[in-house]
Structures are given as C-alpha cells and as structure tokens.
Write a structure and sequence with these properties.
Helices cover about 25% and strands about 20% of the residues. The chain has a seven-stranded mixed sheet with strand order 1-2-3-4-5-7-10. The chain has a six-stranded mixed sheet with strand order 11-18-17-16-12-13, with helices on both faces. It has a five-stranded mixed sheet with strand order 22-30-29-24-25, with no helix packed on it. Among the domains are: about 240 residues, Rossmann fold (3-Layer(aba) Sandwich), CATH 3.40.50.1700; about 120 residues, Immunoglobulin-like (Sandwich), CATH 2.60.40. By secondary structure, it is an alpha/beta fold. Strand 14 and strand 15 form a beta hairpin. Helix 2 packs across helix 12, helix 5 packs parallel to helix 6 and helix 6 packs parallel to helix 8. The structure holds alpha-D-glucopyranose (GLC).
C-alpha cells in the first residue's frame, strides 16, 4: 500500500514539474544548431549587455550575460603552456597553488620537427590543460614570420617560411579546439619585431603581404577553422592592426570568410570609431602595454565600452555593427563554454609530458658532428664537464607573456647527470646573466672573471666538455617588448668557448635559444647542436639526443646567416629595420629568409631546413607523374629514400619549386611540400608527395589574384634549402 502511495506521489511530482517548466530556450538547448542559438540569445540581449560583451571586465576575461546564464569568456596565454592565474585587475600572479602547468617546447622547436602529427599532439595536450584550467581562449599559436634574427619574440613563432608555419599551425589549432577551447592565432599581422611594437607603421607590397606574411593566418582560418585571432600592436598602412579595415574587414572577414572573434592584443585598441567599424570584436588590456603597465581607466572607459554605447545610441554607428560582433562572440561561446558534451581536459599528466618530450626530441637540430663525435655513449667518460648558465637556468619562466609557472622542468644538467651519472659530471656556470625582468636588463651579481676562470679550469680537467649556452629569456634576448641588440652570442660566451678550446678540443656546443647567432668558433668545435627552449622535458630530451638513445631529426625553421647584414631585412637601411620609429619599409619584399639567401646567392652558416642525423640518407631521383599540367591539376612527385646508416632515424624531406623564366621576380625556390620519413637502418621507402599546381602561383598585385603563369617549373627534392638532391622539370599549360 505504502509503495503505491509513494509511486503516486512521485508521478504527481513529475507531471506537475513538467507542467510548470517552460520549454527550454533555444540558446540553452545544446541540440539546436549553433546559428539558431546565436540568433535566439542575441534577440534576448539588451544594448548594454551587447556592448559589455565587446570589452574586458578584468585582465583576462570579458563579459558574459549573467541575466541569461551566458558565461564570461576566460582567456589565457600562451602558446607553450597555460600561464599561471593572473589577478583580476593587475599583471601580478594570483598566487594560486593549483596552476603549475606542463611547459611544452617553444614553437620554433615544434617548427623544427617538420612533423604535423606532432603539432596535432601538441595542440591536443595544451588544449586539454587549457580546458582543465577552465579557459575558453588559449592565446596562441603565434605565426609571425622570422624576418630578422633580432626579433625578441621569434622563439614564439614557427620560422621564416609561411608554408611550414601554415602546415604546423593548422593541426595545432585543431588539437587545441577539440577540447572546446578556442585557439587564438596571433599577432595579425606584420608584428615581426618588438622595437616600437606598439605603433610602428609597416609598409610593404601586396605581394610580400600575401605571399609571405598572410599565408599562415589564412591557413589557420580556412583549414584550421580557428575560432579567434589576435590583432597585433603595430600599424599597417597607417591603421592600427587591431582595428584595421583592410586586414580585418576586407581580408580576414571578407576574402577569408572568418566567422570567429577578433581580439585585440592587450592595449592594441586606440580609437572608438575605428574599433567599432574596422572589424574588432573584443577589446582587451586597453591603456596598458600588455605586460606590466597598469591602466588608470576603468573597463567602462574602454573604447568599445561607454564611448561605443554613446555612438550606438546617437545612431552614428548602426546597431547592426554591434550585432555582428556579438554574433561572433556568442558563436565562439556556443563552440566552447556552452558547447554540449564539452570535454573536461586534464592537467600535467604523463601523456602531456610525453608529447612535450617527443616535440623536444624531434625538434633538436644537430648542426655539426665531425667524425661522428656524437653521440657520446653513457659510460664512455668518467670526467665530464658541463659548462654554461643555460645548463641550469630555468627557461620556462621569462620571455614575456609566454612565461610559465611549471610543475617541473628537467634542466640540461640534470638530464646529463641522469644519463652519465652525477659522480662523473662537474658543472661550472662559466658566466651569469641576472634575473629575467620585463623591459630591463639587471646586471648579474657574480664575479664574471671568477666564473670564467673556474670554467676553463673545469674544462682543462675533463675528458669532454658540454657547453650549454645560447640566449635566454631576459630583456633584449629572446623576450617580448624588446629586440636583441646584436647578432652575436651575448655574455662573453664566444671568448669562453675560445678559452675552453685552448685547454680541451673535445667540446660540444649546445645552443639553447629561439634565434640564430654568429658562430666565430664553428671551425674549431667538433659538434654543435641547436636546442630550443625545450620546456619541462628539456634535460631528458637533450641528454637523450647527446647520448644517442634518440637519433636527432630536427631541421632549421629559419636560416642561420654568417652575419646580420646577410639577412634581407638588414641588407638595406634603417628604414627596413627597425624603421625610423614611425614608419618601416620591408624593402627585401618577398625575399625573406632562404628566399633572400638563395636568390641573392648569400652563403648561409646553416641553411633553412638543415639538420644532421646519426645515420645517413640517400635520396633517389625525383620524378613526376606527367610532363604537362593544367592549372587545376595536382603534380604527383615520387622518389626513394634509403637509410644507409646503422641507426634507425627520421628525415624531413623537402620539395622546392622554382619558375626559372617568370615574368615577375620570383624567389630562387620556395618550399611547397615536406614529409618526415621514419626509416629503420637499411630500409628504403618510396616517398610520394602531391603539389597542387595552384600552389605554384604568385600573387598578382595588379589583378589582386593568385596567378599561375604558364610555362616551365622545376620541382626539386632536398635535404635542406642548401642541399638539393635532384630536380624534375614540368610544364604548366596556359
Ligand atoms: C601581450 C602579448 C600577447 C599576449 C597578450 C596577453 O602583450 O603581445 O601575445 O597574448 O599581451 O598577455
């Protein structure tokens, strides 16, 4: 009897609840299409609620609509890991105790892997960490082109070639976004130096813009489906990029049909009228420098806050302009925080550490290895010297907004001690550089001569020396808000390397950096390795490569010139770099990186795409499936690759295209395909790669069209831009 009574009560409760509860509004119904949810939410919002969504409410968040249950949008740096929590209204750390992350290698290292699969794994891992930290936008990847080796932020980007940057940023973005977190490709566009970054006006040709500086962003939008993009601080053709009509309205939202959100860089907005009308959607960090300076204005004083509301109420700006912004923001919200079945993410786990380690191991570039000096087997030496501050200095902190608070970071010294036995390793710092502080160089306290002399003594008494130097994340090194002031290795390292060589020829130089440097000692040093900022797994990856448990396969994503003036950006006058503090002219035009070195026949120290292995590879002659192609065809090239050594390894093969008799200037050759081939010792594979004829086009700035000029083209297979193996001529019909 009681059971029946209970059942009847339950039945009554359920039916009365159903009778009361109204239909779920469309915008809250995950089963509804996003666009329907967008329109429904928009229709319910007031003018003030819409305007609020278009600007910050705190250092790293923008308004939601509390009344409707639409969440705030939380953003976080950066491209290499999820930054620690920042205070609501300062640049200071919130000092949480649960936000120490996994540090992934810098994006130059990812680029050096030439491995899109790894780029995807990287994006998945960092996206899971951003999701777990409840972030809706991850402020990365950075894809600005490496135009000058002095740019303080090159370490955050993917090198000098737009095709390489595009092929690696697309899978990274897809990986991030599969966790329901928006990637935010940056800095759009032409932020290729830090000097005067807040206002320098960049002038360049349409060809250079479309052929060099836009392709990675275009791929991020059209292939990566990126949900947000960050405007850059600088100006382009007289307008700030954060509200630049040509870049944002005409190219990004017009030609590329971008349906996501344009966010300013922090402090990148400067004008309400332009911010309203020129394609900006969310204004962040106004009246600050994006790193340390604090605003004296409230968030309601932002350009897209009260001043914008005033223009809307007066009718000077139509509400349709506001609605377009809010539609984009709502669309991103329904793709992230309000998506159905949003993943939960995860934070600092073995999978993420493995991803970080794989990128680090595959990104390290072996530049020189005379007489197979490397690898050095564990147990071979009992007296090993490790010298250099970069063997122990944390490289996950500093560098600007990409700075990280990490759960762990294995230093190069620790990694080498683990492999060779701590008892067999003696460390000397050799030089010291002081703490990493934004915008300032702090003199180190230690006695440099004493460090120098101790290091030489340690080297003299050792059987082998690992010098771990390079740059660091200090101001005027690899750091935001400043450029390097010299192309040389800083902190007296060249002298120290020379002195070490005098007492011990068995010297391996390991450069930890995100930029090229001069190497006056190169001829005397038997082995040189370019090790990037490798993240939490630095020491494990580096020691793995040095000891031979990992066969290096990284290749340079940018050219190492002999000297600074070998670079196109530095082959002209100051107006080319850094500009006259107001304007800057990219005088090398489309000839950036190897495009300059090859076309102008300037011999580099190490070419783009260069990297050695502990094994050797033999390339077969390249062939194409046809002789003559139409503009809509795909060229199928093929060649064999053999691992002719005794160690399993991987080789990033490259295909370059050239058009010897073009009617316009074209670079000597351009990268149009690459693939990382893994081969066991003695194994041969046939490599098949497709190149769309349309990818052989140049940007015709007279017709504003990509144009494939009929005629002969040459396709080459190569181990680097400086090591072409063979070529095949094809013809494109009119
Ligand atoms: C910084 C950087 C940008 C970063 C943003 C937030 O100034 O330029 O890359 O994401 O501000 O820290």
């Amino acid at each position: 009897m009681i059971k029946i009574r209970k059942l009847l009560i339950l039945l009554w409760a359920v039916t009365s609840l159903q009778a009361q509860s109204p239909m779920k509004p469309i915008y809250l119904d995950n089963s509804q299409p996003v666009e329907k949810r967008v329109e429904d939410a928009l229709s319910r919002m007031t003018l003030e609620e819409k305007v609020a969504m278009c600007h910050a409410q705190s250092k790293f968040s923008s308004h939601g609509v509390p009344r409707l249950g639409i969440p705030e949008i939380w953003m976080s740096d950066g491209p290499h890991g999820v930054r620690e929590e920042i205070e609501w209204d300062s640049w200071g750390a919130a000092k949480w105790t649960n936000d120490s992350c996994t540090a992934f290698p810098a994006l130059t290292c990812l680029a050096a892997t030439f491995n899109p699969d790894l780029a995807h794994a990287y994006g998945v891992a960092i996206g899971e960490e951003a999701r777990y930290r409840r972030k809706d936008i991850l402020l990365g990847p950075g894809v600005n082109i490496y135009r000058t080796p002095l740019n303080g932020r090159n370490f955050e980007y993917m090198g000098e070639d737009p095709y390489l940057a595009a092929r690696l940023s697309v899978p990274y973005i897809k990986g991030v976004q599969q966790s329901g977190v928006a990637a935010c490709v940056k800095h759009f566009a032409l932020n290729n130096q830090e000097m005067w970054r807040g206002h320098i006006n960049v002038e360049l040709s349409d060809r250079a813009l479309y052929e060099i500086y836009l392709p990675a962003f275009k791929a991020a939008v059209e292939e990566g489906g990126v949900w947000s993009i960050m405007g850059s601080y600088n100006k382009f053709r007289g307008q700030h990029c954060c509200h630049n009509d040509l870049l944002l309205n005409k190219i990004l939202k017009g030609e590329w049909n971008f349906d996501g959100v344009v966010v300013t860089d922090w402090g990148g907005a400067h004008n309400t009228q332009e911010a309203a009308l020129n394609g900006l959607d969310i204004e962040m960090g106004s009246y600050t420098n994006g790193l340390s300076s604090m605003s004296v204005f409230t968030y309601e004083d932002y350009y897209l806050a009260k001043p914008f509301l005033k223009l809307l109420k007066s009718g000077e700006v139509p509400v349709s302009v506001l609605d377009d912004k809010v539609r984009r923001i709502l669309r991103m919200t329904f793709r992230t925080s309000m998506m159905g079945e949003r993943p939960y993410g995860s934070f600092v786990n073995e999978t993420h550490s493995l991803a970080a380690r794989r990128v680090a191991e595959e990104g390290i570039v072996l530049l020189k290895n005379d007489k197979q000096f490397l690898p050095v087997q564990a147990g071979k030496y009992k007296k090993i010297a490790v010298i250099g501050e970069n063997a122990t200095r944390s490289m996950t902190e500093g560098g600007g907004s990409s700075t990280l608070k990490v759960k762990y970071e294995v230093s190069p010294l620790e990694g080498l001690q683990q492999v060779y036995g701590a008892a067999n390793v003696v460390y000397s710092k050799g030089y010291s550089t002081g703490p990493s502080v934004y915008g300032r160089v702090i003199a180190p306290k230690e006695n440099q001569q004493k460090l120098f002399d101790e290091a030489v003594k340690t080297a003299r008494e050792a059987e082998i020396v690992f010098f771990v130097g390079g740059l660091n994340k200090n101001h005027e090194q690899d750091c935001e808000a400043g450029d390097r002031t010299s192309y040389n290795l800083p902190f007296g390292q060249d002298d120290l390397i020379r002195e070490i060589l005098k007492v011990n020829k068995n010297l391996v130089v390991v450069l930890v950096s995100g930029n090229a440097v001069a190497m006056p000692w190169l001829k005397e040093v038997p082995a040189v390795m370019q090790a990037w900022y490798l993240g939490s797994e630095s020491g494990n990856a580096l020691a793995g490569v040095i000891s031979g448990t990992v066969n290096p396969s990284g290749k340079l994503p940018f050219t190492f010139g002999q000297k600074l003036t070998d670079y196109g950006a530095h082959a002209f006058d100051k107006l080319s770099y850094p500009g006259d503090s107001i304007n800057q002219y990219y005088k090398e035009d489309i000839l950036v990186g190897y495009r300059w070195f090859d076309t102008k026949k300037v011999k580099p120290l190490f070419p783009f795409g260069y990297g050695l292995s502990y094994t050797t590879f033999e390339y077969g002659k390249i062939s194409a499936d046809k002789k003559v192609y139409a503009a809509t065809d795909v060229v199928k090239v093929s060649f064999t690759l053999k691992n002719t050594g005794t160690m399993d390894g991987a080789e990033a093969v490259q295909i370059y295209a050239s058009q010897p008799k073009a009617s316009v200037i074209r670079p000597a050759k351009e990268l149009k395909a690459f693939k990382k081939i893994f081969l066991k010792a003695g194994e041969t594979q046939t490599v098949n790669l497709d190149i769309k004829v349309s990818d052989l086009a140049y940007f015709n700035d007279k017709t504003h069209q990509w144009t494939v000029e009929p005629g002969d083209f040459v396709l080459s297979n190569a181990a680097s831009a400086g090591d072409v193996k063979s070529a095949v001529k094809i013809q494109v019909m009119p």
